[in-house]
Q: What sequence folds into this?
């Protein structure tokens, strides 16, 4: 069934802006394989509103992969926002009557999400030295939010993640000695258990909206949220795959470990050792490598046809080049 | 192999043609065409650099394993011995062999990627 999004947005304008509210703007911004983002606006009884619609364009399968539903995503954004996290303001969670499928609406804010702009655009030169500390700060209220009841978030830890990705790797049939060595090394270096917390799950440069004046404006893309080791969120933003050409700046290509950790501790987070972050960073490289292999397989097995997929398979060697250096340095 | 044209020249000619028509395509196809051109460039590099990269990998793995062999069988054995714990980061020659393999493979697959440990760009 195809959904007429524009017609749905017109109905939504009236529902949110009051009778007679007219859609003034509706534009599809981007789309992954399964998710659409629309910018839209209307003139309502309380004045103009500029909003973002995030909707799933293919049916959600909770058994497939680890993504959460958009309703769950909206609930987590609201829960962490109530704790003071810099997250989008959810304006409306779509219902059956809205005719837009699984979707929610948030207030549009200005800013930049393109990773390479954050690491290299002169517009961010002034604020860049402060961003790693701010990233540490913004994680504290997220990790301090009790997971709202009834959401059935996945719970994981270092050991479980290694096993999960090794299982996926074995199923691909690929034989990559560097990935093998990373699995063996990480197994021997799993950090001691820690009190699990709510995690964003995809906290990296690219999923954070930055403002050239204030820095971190909003943490976006919550679909991989789960419960686990708070250092996981820190390790992922330190994974070199998300440093956009600036491997010399370990946090997102813009900052240093010490600032990230200091920002976290100063905002009241339980102090985290850099070795723990490095464990998750190395597992992050390994995880991204295995995910790249998986994307190639979806082409080989005829699930997707795009030329993008086999080429993503040739990005495994990026993670191998990173892993071999991390293995040499040690945790 | 025939030399007029060589296989890598065929790949290069296709890449150049894709680059030529890219501006005439809609945004989605222009993006996919860029990916396709990158794929042709990867094929070119594999054809020109692949044999030396494979020879270096064979050297590194056979010196650790202590016997000769073809790339595929050495690679399978190398993986199995890492998995069993017989080879670790401490085993002499293992990391050195893997560093050479990683460096040569990234030069074929994604030469513009800046791996962990790369110093900042000049200037």
A:
């Amino acid at each position: 069934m195809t959904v007429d999004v524009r017609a749905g947005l017109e109905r939504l304008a009236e529902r949110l802006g009051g009778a007679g509210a007219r859609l003034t703007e509706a534009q599809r911004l981007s789309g992954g394989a399964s998710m659409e983002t629309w910018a839209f606006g209307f003139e309502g009884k309380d004045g103009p509103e500029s909003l973002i619609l995030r909707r799933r364009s293919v049916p959600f399968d909770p058994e497939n992969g680890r993504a959460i539903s958009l309703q769950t995503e909206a609930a987590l954004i609201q829960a962490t926002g109530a704790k003071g996290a810099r997250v989008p303001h959810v304006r409306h969670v779509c219902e059956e009557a809205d005719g837009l499928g699984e979707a929610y609406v948030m207030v549009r804010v200005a800013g930049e999400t393109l990773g390479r702009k954050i690491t290299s655009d002169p517009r961010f030169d002034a604020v860049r030295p402060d961003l790693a500390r701010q990233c540490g700060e913004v994680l504290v209220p997220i990790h301090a939010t009790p997971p709202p009841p009834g959401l059935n978030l996945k719970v994981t830890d270092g050991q479980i993640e290694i096993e999960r990705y090794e299982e996926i790797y074995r199923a691909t049939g690929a034989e990559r000695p560097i990935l093998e060595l990373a699995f063996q090394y990480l197994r021997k270096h799993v950090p001691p258990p820690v009190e699990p917390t709510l995690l964003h799950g995809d906290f990296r440069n690219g999923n954070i909206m930055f403002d050239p004046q204030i820095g971190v404006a909003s943490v976006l893309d919550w679909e991989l949220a789960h419960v686990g080791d708070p250092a996981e969120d820190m390790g992922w933003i330190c994974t070199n795959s998300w440093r956009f050409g600036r491997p010399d700046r370990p946090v997102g290509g813009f900052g240093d470990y010490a600032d990230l950790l200091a920002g976290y501790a100063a905002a009241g987070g339980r102090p985290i050792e850099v070795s723990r972050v490095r464990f998750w960073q190395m597992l992050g490289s390994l995880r991204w490598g295995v995910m790249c292999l998986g994307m190639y397989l979806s082409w080989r097995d005829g699930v997707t046809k795009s030329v993008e997929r086999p080429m993503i398979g040739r990005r495994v060697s990026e993670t191998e080049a990173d892993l071999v250096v991390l293995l040499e340095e040690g945790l | 192999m025939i030399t007029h044209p060589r296989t890598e020249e065929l790949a290069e000619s296709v890449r150049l043609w894709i680059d030529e028509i890219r501006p005439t395509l809609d945004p989605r196809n222009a993006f996919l065409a860029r990916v396709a051109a990158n794929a042709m460039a990867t094929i070119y590099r594999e054809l020109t650099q692949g044999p030396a990269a494979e020879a270096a990998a064979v050297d590194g793995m056979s010196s650790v394993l202590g016997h000769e062999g073809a790339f595929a069988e050495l690679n399978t054995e190398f993986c199995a011995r890492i998995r069993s714990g017989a080879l670790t980061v401490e085993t002499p020659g293992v990391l050195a062999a893997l560093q050479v393999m990683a460096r040569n493979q990234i030069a074929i697959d994604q030469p513009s990627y800046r791996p962990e440990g790369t110093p900042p760009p000049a200037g």
About this structure: Residues 17 and 114 of chain B are 28 Å apart (CA to CA). The helical segments of chain B are 7-21, 27-65, 71-83, 94-109. Residues 7-109 of chain B form one domain.
